[in-house]
């Protein structure tokens, strides 16, 4: 399901790529699809724009001179408040699975290997934006040991202190929180990321366990259900 044209006009995207031709082509293509689009040629320019403006999603190329996409994503995730949760889609010419997983570990919401079809880029962007705009559960507060997850606000705390989450992590926790103690199919979760393999979901689960669990290797609250998927088991 695509975003309606009025919804696209309200969304401001940032494209960061050192290749002038690719950067301009992406900017023009996404603008023709109805988005507001800004562009930067390197990490330094991107930082200035991200500090000055609010974006609904950023597209980062991984291989750039100076600061690469991994470092830029880590910097963004370290920012406080909503700017630090700006969704990130990474573009990478690297085909190795380890490099793509590294992007997800830094806090990216999705990745797209080069070369790619513009329509696939559009589909992935829309999937991330839809996920972030999903209806929020009302009055759902879950206890996860030392952590509390406020599904309505999309906020996680540990011993009262806020824990930073990406939009993808918030969306995953919200989906699992809608049916606590009930396994959710891994491929259902994967469809939300336009990643039919489910690898992105696995990476996000691993990252969430590090934030929630006392012992991430022996998860108590975010459990794997073998052959099915994952289940959130609050107190």
Short recap of the structure:
This protein is an alpha/beta fold. The protein has helices spanning about 5-10, 20-30, 45-50, 70-75, 95-105, 120-130, 165-175, 185-190, 200-210, and strands at about 10-15, 35-40, 55-60, 90, 110-115, 140-145, 145-150, 155-160, 160-165, 185, 220-225, 230.
Shape: globular
Distance between the termini: 36 Å
Please indicate the count of domains: 2
What is the number of strand segments? 12
**Poorly predicted regions:** 134-139
Given helix and strand content, the structural type is alpha/beta
Please write out the topology:
Elements: H1 5-9, E1 12-16, H2 20-32, E2 36-40, H3 43-52, E3 57-61, H4 69-77, E4 88-92, H5 97-105, E5 110-113, H6 118-132, E6 141-144, E7 147-150, E8 155-158, E9 161-163, H7 167-177, E10 184-185, H8 186-191, H9 199-212, E11 222-225, E12 229-232
Parallel strand pairs: 1-2, 1-3, 3-4, 4-5
Antiparallel strand pairs: 6-7, 7-8, 8-9, 10-12, 11-12
Verbal overview:
The chain has two domains: 5-132, Response regulator (Rossmann fold, 3-Layer(aba) Sandwich); 141-232, Arc Repressor Mutant, subunit A (Orthogonal Bundle), CATH 1.10.10.10. The protein is built from nine helices and twelve strands. It has helices at residues 5-9, 20-32, 43-52, 69-77, 97-105, 118-132, 167-177, 186-191, 199-212; strands spanning 12-16, 36-40, 57-61, 88-92, 110-113, 141-144, 147-150, 155-158, 161-163, 184-185, 222-225, 229-232. The strands form three sheets. It has a five-stranded parallel sheet, sandwiched between helices. Strands 6-7-8-9 form a four-stranded antiparallel sheet, with helices on one face.
